[in-house]
Amino acid sequence: MGRLLRLQLLHLSLNSFSGKFPSNISHCTQLRVLNVISNELTGSIPDQLGSLLKLTHLWLQGNHLTGKIPEWIGNFSSLYSIALGDNNLQGRIPNQLGRLTSLGNFLVWSNNLSGMVPSSIYIIIHIFSVTDNQLRGELPQNVGITLPNLEVFAGDVNKFTGTVPASLSNASRLRLLDFAEDNSLGSGKDGDLTSLNFLANCTNLEVLSFSRNHLGGELPDSIANLSTKLRIFTIGGNLIYGPLPTGIGNLVNLTTLGIEQNHIGVSLPDVIGKLYKLEGLYLNLNIFSGPIPSSLGNLTSVTRLFMKGNRFEGSIPPSLGNCQNL
């Protein structure tokens, strides 16, 4: 393969190639796209690949690669997309990647990366996914200013702390915001959920997840102003209290609503029955009281309904018989 000196595109994804990464690819100095996604490659990313200075797409995800992310990737001035997810890479994200001024996609999910994300990496990115690592530190408060074209911002299953940046209101293209599971965003006090106020500007938002964090306070009425494109809204496992705002009924395209394991209570509003597309509704382990609203019977698409550990009383409404998919 190293003799293919004019090679520009190399797509070998979805095969069963095994063994160490072939270092003689380094002779293919005209290469723009290197795609070996979903194979069985092992070992570290060879330093010889540092000669591929014309790369625009480096797609190595879904293998068994080990070692660190090489610093020399920062020399690839034309690089637009880095996909290293679903490997066994360790160590820190190199500061040198901040030199990649053409970078659009940064995907390093499901590795064993640790340390803080370098502030220099928050540049011109559309898709940013560091899900399922051991990364820590606070999210930069100016991230929505430095990344105005951000579409995917995913850092769930890490160790991030601090607050949700208000500047994300400037990222009007944002489709997915997910920092759920094992992070510690929030102080556990009132005011943590003011972030939901500014997210009203993100009219393309489809996924919003902050479950299993340390967010406190009441759910603001401004959730009524969240994107009507929102499909998944999960904030379970926090320290949220107070009533569920009736504005939740405006989010008519929700398929999953997860508010479990909080201190949300009073009565469950009838407007919950407006969410006709719901497939999963997680209300368990809160302090809801009073009767179960008959409007739940409108949720004919629901397949998962969790209500245990509350203070509901009275009889189960016959209208739940309409939910034939339970």
UniProtKB/TrEMBL annotation:
GO CC annotations on file: membrane
Arranged from A to Z, the UniProt key words for this protein are: Glycoprotein, Kinase, Leucine-rich repeat, Membrane, Repeat, Serine/threonine-protein kinase, Signal, Transferase
Name the principal localization, coarsely classed: membrane
Q: Where are the transmembrane segments?
A: none
Please provide an example of a Pfam family that matches this protein in its UniProt record: LRR_1
Superkingdom of the source species: Eukaryota
Q: Where is this protein localized, as stated in its record?
A: Membrane
Task: Give the Enzyme Commission number.
Answer: 2.7.11.1
Positions in coiled-coil regions: none
A molecular function (GO) held by this record is: protein serine/threonine kinase activity
Know the name of this protein? Putative non-specific serine/threonine protein kinase
Classification from the root reads: Eukaryota, Viridiplantae, Streptophyta, Embryophyta, Tracheophyta
